[in-house]
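Hi C.,

You asked whether I'd gotten around to modeling the 121-residue construct. I have! Everything is below, sequence then structure, no commentary in between.
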Amino acid sequence: MKISRALTTIAAFNVEQSVTFYGQLLSQGATAHLPNVYAEFQIKDIRLGIYKPRDAESLLSPHPAISLCLEVEDLDDAIAHLTSLGYPPPGAILHPSHGREIYAYDPDGNRIILYEPAKTG
């Protein structure tokens, strides 16, 4: 098997609401956009696709099980940004061995893990 490219996709029942959310979260416009059907964002080396699930796919789960993990330089700034978008993280900051992290959720309930790496040195 030869893989030429890969992307992460997130099912969104209200595609345009999610496109707006991810555009604001990532501070960029979509690189591809078919209204109410599909949009794509480029984040460093990752393509993130937002798509409207088929009816049959909607019956399998109330929402897809995915966690989008984003490394941030300043977790407090990231929390403030999410809060300003109307999606404040519901829990407390966690302190795993790799740094600090918080769980947040997009308009469709998909989990976003924002983490700030531990300072070394």
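If it helps when you're writing up: The helical segments are 15-26, 55-60, 75-84.

Thanks,
B.
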